[in-house]
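To: structure subgroup
Subject: Chain for Friday's discussion

All,

I'm putting the inputs and outputs inline so they're searchable in the archive.
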Amino acid sequence: MKNKIILTVALFALFLSNTTSAQEQTDSKQTQKKELTQEEKQANSNQEQEKKAAEWVASLNLNDAAKVQRLQTVIITHLKAVRDWNNEHLGTTVPAGINPTTGQQLSDLDRQIIAQSSMPKTVHENLMTGLRKELKEEQVELILDKYTIGKVQFTMAGYKSIVPDMTTLEEETILKYMKQAREQAVDYKSMKQISAIFEIYKTKSEQYLNNNGRNWKQMYKAFTDAIKAKKAAEKTSK
């Protein structure tokens, strides 16, 4: 009996030792991650930008190695410039105040966008010039879609669902707004910032509809009411 107790204690001690050792290894790995130098962080970020550029250009299936390399360089240069400006010009550099249009207090996101929007225009111009030098316009649009994860198509699909009888002119006008949003949004780093830029042009689109005989709030309410009614009917039928 005594031997069994000793053996049990020994095994328990070994378990604790292994658990402690495993935890120490985990803690060590976490510490190593936390202790990355600024240069290492920058190198990791550079690799991410290079991977994005390579994947985006590869999606065009160009079969021209020299052109692929030139395009990757254009996109990488732009991605790094946007990242660096964003990281070096924080929203906190913009004084807290009000939005002169709405009178509301500037949000943290507002201040981030204001700071990022002060990036030199040449950064955007160099991207667009570089893309258009190598690609057809529809291919340029495909690259811009990569930057903005297809928000133009997604947003247009939403508008067509809400306004099923949308006219050709309405569609052309709203699509033009969405494309303007996309080109402007590529100069922003986070998806929150990109979405906020699209919101500017969505507001313009909805104002356009209101100014041309539509009632946006009424149409949107009818759309959401229909969705709720459909869900309720599906729930009842189960």
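Points worth raising on Friday:
The two ends are 62 Å apart (CA to CA).
Residues 1 and 209 are 87 Å apart (CA to CA).

D.
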